[in-house]
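Action item from last meeting closed. Structure (456 res):
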């Protein structure tokens, strides 16, 4: 039913495509991880080169793209539901085209078009740079089109494309993942792991600095397994810190098995630029469940990493990802996860009830837990963590923090920025301070958001 577009990933090809977007608006609906957010920026940038005009609502658009996520449950249903809301718009505007990208596009391919006739094209995570060609073909030829093949042998060579980077932005350094955790669909929707050449990354960071960027977050599904030629992640981090003029550096997401003393020492040695915030998922506090997840570390080994990082970077602040209700998890094993929060001292957690994902090993486990059990545990985890975290963050009240001002908080008539420990801080101040680092005294601390007063 669908034609497969046999183009190859080449960003330069976008410049050879006719200006399909002349007089047309584009709207991209995005959900999922920071990688998806960054991919959406890339899509907008590529489509703007073809004269598409970004619009704020789907009603204004001639081209609608859903950049989808399949990490959690029922992602296809969510996509279909959203597409259904566009039916009347498409009836009024026969020129409208609807496309699906992201991990759902990669995962479902032709099945999306077969089950939802409103969809005109589907593209995978490895085909974003071919988006202008694909869109042009849907307009010039009509019909249905799919391009979701992986470019397995092609090197990971891209430029960072961000329309309005602002004060802080992301820079992709890796894509894909080779870990094959039994719960995770990423290796199947993002492909095998690839690293960008380090000199390309340095070039991107330098160019972003000239555009006013003060902070970059180095981004990858498993960012600290980066490797290009003889440069590992610790060495890349040092190069970005010492060979560019960027003011602040963060990175996400790290895998515990790849967080070693060398990386911790590099962070400490470059503490003037590398922020002391680390997102380090532990997923489960129980060693048996970790083994079933194929995480390649035990509870004790994870806690040893936390202790090592605290010794090396005394002011380090952690957040983490957690899955509860994994197949076969007992109540006692769930309690190990709660105690792990206490022992690790995680001021912020991102927790989810386990949901089976296509292609993954855990989806085939026979000891799946009932939904009510999973969500009861999730609620109890949040309740237990809230009690811990609200007590832990009281220490910040009265402290003075260096805040990089990022934007105006129009809803509350304030400005906001982030501390070196990645706390979002709201305070009264002039919009002229955006892009500057200022001293702010913390007056009220919540686990993820602070209120403060500007010190003049």
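Sequence:
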């Amino acid at each position: 039913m669908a034609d497969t577009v046999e183009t190859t990933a080449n960003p330069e090809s976008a410049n050879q495509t006719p200006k399909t977007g002349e007089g047309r608006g584009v709207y991209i609906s995005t959900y999922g991880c920071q990688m998806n957010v960054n991919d959406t920026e890339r899509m907008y940038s590529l489509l703007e080169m073809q004269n598409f005009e970004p619009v704020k609502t789907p009603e204004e658009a001639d081209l609608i793209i859903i950049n989808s996520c399949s990490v959690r449950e029922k992602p296809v249903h969510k996509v279909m539901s959203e597409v259904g809301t566009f039916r009347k718009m498409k009836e009024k505007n026969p020129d409208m085209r609807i496309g699906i990208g992201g991990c759902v596009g990669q995962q479902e391919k032709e099945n999306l078009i077969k089950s939802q006739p409103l969809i005109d094209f589907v593209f995978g995570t490895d085909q974003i740079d071919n988006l202008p060609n694909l869109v042009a073909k849907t307009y010039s030829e009509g019909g249905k089109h799919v391009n979701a093949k992986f470019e397995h042998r092609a090197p990971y060579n891209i430029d960072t494309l961000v329309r309005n980077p602002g004060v802080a932005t992301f820079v992709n350094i890796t894509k894909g993942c080779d870990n094959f955790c039994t719960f995770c669909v990423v290796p199947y929707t993002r492909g095998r792991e690839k690293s960008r050449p380090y000199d390309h990354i340095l070039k991107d960071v330098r160019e972003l600095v000239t555009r006013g960027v003060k902070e970059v977050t180095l981004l990858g599904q498993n960012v600290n397994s980066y490797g290009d030629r003889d440069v590992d992640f610790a060495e890349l981090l040092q190069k970005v810190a010492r060979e560019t003029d960027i003011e602040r550096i963060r990175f996400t997401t790290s895998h515990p098995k790849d967080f070693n003393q060398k990386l911790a020492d590099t962070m400490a040695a470059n503490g003037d630029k590398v922020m002391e915030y680390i997102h380090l998922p532990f997923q489960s506090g129980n060693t048996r469940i970790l083994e079933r997840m194929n995480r390649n570390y035990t509870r004790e080994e994870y806690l040893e990493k936390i202790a090592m990082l605290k010794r090396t970077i005394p002011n380090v602040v952690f957040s983490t990802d957690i899955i509860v209700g994994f197949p076969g998890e007992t109540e006692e094993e769930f309690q190990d996860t709660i105690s792990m929060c206490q022992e690790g001292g995680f001021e912020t957690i991102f927790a989810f009830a386990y949901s089976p994902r296509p292609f993954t090993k855990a989806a085939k486990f026979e000891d799946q837990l009932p939904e009510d059990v999973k969500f009861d545990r999730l609620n109890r985890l949040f309740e237990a963590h809230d009690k811990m975290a609200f007590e832990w963050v009281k220490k910040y009240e009265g402290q003075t923090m260096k805040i990089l001002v990022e934007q105006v908080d129009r809803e509350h008539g304030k400005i906001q920025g982030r501390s070196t420990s990645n706390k979002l801080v709201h305070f009264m101040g002039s919009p002229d301070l955006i892009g500057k680092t200022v001293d702010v005294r913390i007056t009220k601390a919540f686990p993820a958001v602070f209120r403060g007063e500007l010190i003049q």
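Note appended to the action item: Residues 397-454 form a domain with the OB fold (Dihydrolipoamide Acetyltransferase, E2P) fold (CATH 2.40.50.140).
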